[in-house]
User: Fold these one by one.
Assistant:
Number 1:
Amino acid sequence: MILHPGILALLAGSGIVLAMMLAATGVGFAVMRRWDFGSSSEEQLLLERKTYLIASIVKYALGFELLAGLLFIYTVDDIHNAFVGAMCATGSLNANPVGWAALMTKIAVFFGAALWIALNAIDQRAEDFPLVKPKYTALMVVTLLVAADLVLTARYFLGLEPEVITSCCGSLFSSADTGVAGDLAALPAKSMMWAFYGSAGLFLCTALAGLFYRNASVSYAVSLFAALFFPVSLAAVVSFISLYIYELPSHHCPFDIFQKNYNFVGYPLYLGLFGGVLFGLLPGLSQPLKKRASLAPVIERLERKWLILSILLILSFLALATWPVVFGNLTL
């Protein structure tokens, strides 16, 4: 194991978060079993108070998990000097293949935790707490994800050997590689530009329509195009956006952009993408909840905020991705 402040913070913080989540899940399970909103008994009043306590604990715990994703990327990039052949986070992740599974799990935790926080916000704005049982059922799933994340993160960091010779981005994100990374790097840049800006245009036009025309079909379309835009954007980063940022026609790495040499542009770039897609998913996912009378006006009010946030974040992502294409020195 490599002693690094980021590793120690991630392992200790994730352990504390899992303990908090398990405690909250246990109390939530008890709340689900005895919850009766129509009752005015002392037990029901106590359960209602506990829901606020649990929600506060879980929000702080999941808030750490959201930040832990950024800390994980920063840490694996920062420790690459410990491995022979590594030049960025790619080399660190290749040094122990479990790291890729840990990264994928952190992405799943990001979306799972954020969706749970949104579900809780909807429930707490309604007068009759109609989502208590589905909310705590979902909390169990999120807790399992947090547990898997901790196990994989610990296996990755504890399994690192500083003397190991690893391969870096130049060999992995290359058209000569036969894996998924090589396939993404081999995608034709011009075609990917059409796909990227086309899917961005579809999403933005639909989201703008959602601000003025409130109906379920538009909300579902917004979420569908947000879901499609996410993998297209990740592929575009490897295919051509990274080339323009590095100003090198053969450098496809999606992780070097987190480094100082490139002004840490990877952090705002990916935050814009992940945040924009997340808020774009919420309008469609929340539509079935409108069948409950007490939730319909709550979701109507939140939906407009989600759409505005999603549009602004996706626009910031597009601006960062397009700036080097338009004003950079590289011509493909």
Number 2:
Amino acid sequence: MAMLGYEFMQRAFWAGGLIGVIAPILGVYLMLRRQVLMADTLSHVSLAGVALGSFLQFNPTISGFVIAIIGALVIEQLRRVYRTYTEVPVAIIMTSGLAVAVVLMSLNAHLNKSFSSYLFGSIVAVSDTQLGLIAIVTALGLVFFVALRRPLYNFAFDEETAAISGTRVSILSFSFAVFTGMTVAASMPIVGVLLVSALIVLPASIALRIAPGFLAAMGVAVLTGLFGVFSGLTASYYLNSPPGGTIALILLGFLLIAVFIQKLLQLRNRRAVQINKPKVRGVINHD
């Protein structure tokens, strides 16, 4: 393929492939923990970090990465303060991050022009530094999810049961929050701040709808994420469209197709049961 002859496309595909593996796995756990909005919130916090780095003339990638991790830790701490209202910490941090980003961007008009790549993603925006960070995050994430797969499984479904079974829920919860922040910040160059949650949530939504078990859901989510990222980057290159929006639309199409096929199968099964009912009654009456 001619597009792979360009160095920026090679970097984009490498970055997309790495994120396409780790983001859907994280998405499955976030959906099981009912913390889907956490990804969206941390993307806004990461944007504030990018704005702060640009304003202070520091590397915006590094600052966005660090601020996203800090934001994840603050959310986790606030979640323990507002135990009854678990959505409150998400709302507080989301609005705070967005407010800081908007104010910092307004202080320097030059920042507004360069922020479109952070908002919507860009296939030419993936630098060597970002690719290195994405590779580190993916490697750490795979080690994290493989080494702690059993505690994470119990932790994802019920924290109290996991604590009773001996899992150190507090440490695991903070570690999970830190990794969520790292993944969100690493995904930003490919899909952009506004659509990071699409890459994390949509493959997991498809997987949890059609997969027969937990491990199968992980496999389906990763395959869906990879196919969505690669097809989205390819379409973005030829159509000259923002990669974030293109990837999100393709994943949304996958979800609609999966829902449609599942409804057709359910309808076929119901008809098969209705057709077989008279036969069963006939056999019973005959006996």
